[in-house]
Fold:
Amino acid sequence: MPNPVSPDDTDAHLLRLSESGNEAAFLALYRRHQAAVFRFAAHTCGRTEIAEEVVQDVFISLLSHPRAFQPERGSLEAYLIGMARNLVRRHLADMSSRDIEGNTLHCAETPLDLFSHDQELRALQRAILSLPVSYREVVVLCDIREIDYQAAARQLGCAVGTVRSRLHRARAILARKLRPRQVSGRGAGCAL
Structure:
């Protein structure tokens, strides 16, 4: 009889159980972390179909190679997001820049979403997706997921100062892209 799974079980314990064939333990890990992995992938690449594929690949890899995770190096979620990061980068490398700019994240929209801040959100989304990948990753981790700089540095495999620097540059680029355009001295109806 497989060991029972409790919601209070640690990730390391659930991983050990799933390694020994306990499907409920693996399902508990999946339910616990799939949303965070999906959000990271979706915000980083801007395509839900790629994010879904990344989630699937991350958890298949975890199931196939559970001992690759080393709890002394960080949390399981950080490890999974690190794998997702690598997979997203591979997908982005395979996509042309035209495909990246031409696609936006497709989320289910409610009538309220359609009327409130829709244009601003789309403009922000396009601006984030236009950032270089290394800047996009820190914006997703620190500003969207609200992870602290040290955790983001561990997930990205870089120094805290690098995270701060990239985030500062990314925010400056986003501010320029999202700043309302100044009308030049010509009249609004003048053709250029």
